[in-house]
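Ticket #4471: complex job returned nothing on first submit. Input attached below:
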Amino acid sequence: MKRDPRTVTKLVPVPSTNIIPERDVDKSPILECRHLGIDFGGLTAVDDFNMAIGRTEIAGLIGPNGAGKTTVFNLLTRVYQPTRGTVLVDGHDTAGKTTTQISHMGIARTFQNIRLFKELTVMDNVLIGLHHEMDYRLPGAIFRLPGYWRGERIARERARELLGIFDMQDMADYKAGSLPYGAQRRLEIVRALATGPSLLLLDEPAAGMNPSETAELMDNIVKIRDTFKIAIMLIEHDMNLVMGICEGICVLNFGRIIAKGTPEDIQANPAVIEAYLGKKKEA
Amino acid sequence: MSYVFSQAVNALQLGSIYALVALGYSMVYGIILLLNFAHGDIIMVGAYVTYYAMTSFHLHPLVSVVLAVVMCTLLGVVIEKVAYTPLRSAPRLSLLITAIGVSFLLENGAQLIFGTDTKSMVQEPLISGSLTLGGVSITYAALITIVVSVVSMIALTILVQKTKLGKAMRAVSEDMGAAQLMGISLNRTISFTFAVGSALAGIGSVLHIASYFQASPMMGSMLGLKAFVAAVLGGIGSIPGAMIGGFAIGIVETLVTAAGLSTWKDGVVFAILIVVLLLKPTGILGKKITEKV
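Support reply: We reran it on our side without changes. The output follows.
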């Protein structure tokens, strides 16, 4: 992808507790959270959240309902301002940044309840994602200067390419709201990719999908990671998906991390089993 | 027959001004859910700028017109930055009351600066002359008003449908949060919306003074309210709706006046507002609003 190579990348020491795929070991993580926390009034929703994600890692964030998973996503994208802690994106602190700036720093996301621009066409949804990369200005748009057309043409080509990931080129002129559910979910991923992220956050991408759609989605997530060379972090309840494609998994319960590790570690972890299934009755 | 034709021209002339003003109301409401009651008063300022540029400074009419539109645009953006931006996360009611406050400020400020009397440009109108078409005389002012309005509306439609900022506007109006996550700058998009809405009000103000020759401190309040009714009738937040609503209100007012009931025309317009709010609160083209769960 065409994100400018950052000239200055601060080196961040990688905490040894994190699972980073081998190919990323010597590189600084794309995302690092240190002691991240947020209180809503007196309620602590997320506390002491520490995590690092490698540059091409697929990471999973799981936990029972209400554990604070989506809150973590909202903290990472500054929809909520954290009460405590630091979030580093590619070594750069995100303190004081707006949601818009976070998007420019390279984080994109999808939503648990699909939030497409339903009244706009599929093409326009993707073009909006490509928004900040397109450098054609208003006078050009009004007077229809050649530069505007060039920019517009490049943007449309790029949008078609992105829609091609999910074979959705034919739907370009439909209203986003008129697409079937599965296609809307896929379009949200395309729109997020259009912003040129280095970290893609997927909030329950397989929600409402049948097993064969989920299997296809798994292939596509891996394909996206391999094609775009980006990190992906996903929240998901479908354990086949999480255990199947995530290299590192982080388990959240009551706003705290209770386990971190590879899928094998997590499946064997007693604290995780307890959080999901309850405590074993003492004999 | 010629009577019907000239009344039709009157209706279109009045309606196109309402439509231009209603567009500003609807665009701003569409994007930040604010009924910008100061919008009508921007027209008053534009009318005064045109009046003084022409009569006191003897500027070329074209220069005066450009000056008025530019001043209105700037005023709109300044009002947004000073009065509305600090309240972005405040309850909608605070924003509404602030808008009413800004409206009073502009009206009373105008009385203080320009005096309370009505300034008349009948002696040296912006656009003079008329042409005769099949025995009916149409003033150039009416013709230009209709043509300029239609051209402005077409330009606006292209702007909103085709350009990057137009797409950003529609995205923000549909889902502010998701738009920000797509990297759209809220401040820029909202300022841009106010700028476009106020520029249309500026054009409306010039056309208004060209058609009706007058500027007074309170002119914006009634004009603004009627444009608001037009926006509600068409479906507030909808751009084509504002255009339809504007022309509809213009036609109704002209019909009522033509029937010899000109004292009733304001009453009829507001009666429309009541009927719309009772029977179809979303207006002609408005969408049914479902609460998000």
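The interface with chain B takes residues 77, 79, 98-100, 102-104, 108-109, 111, 115-120, 124, 127-129, 131-132, 134, 136, 138, 141-142, 191, 194-195 of chain A (CB under 8 Å). Closing as resolved unless it happens again.
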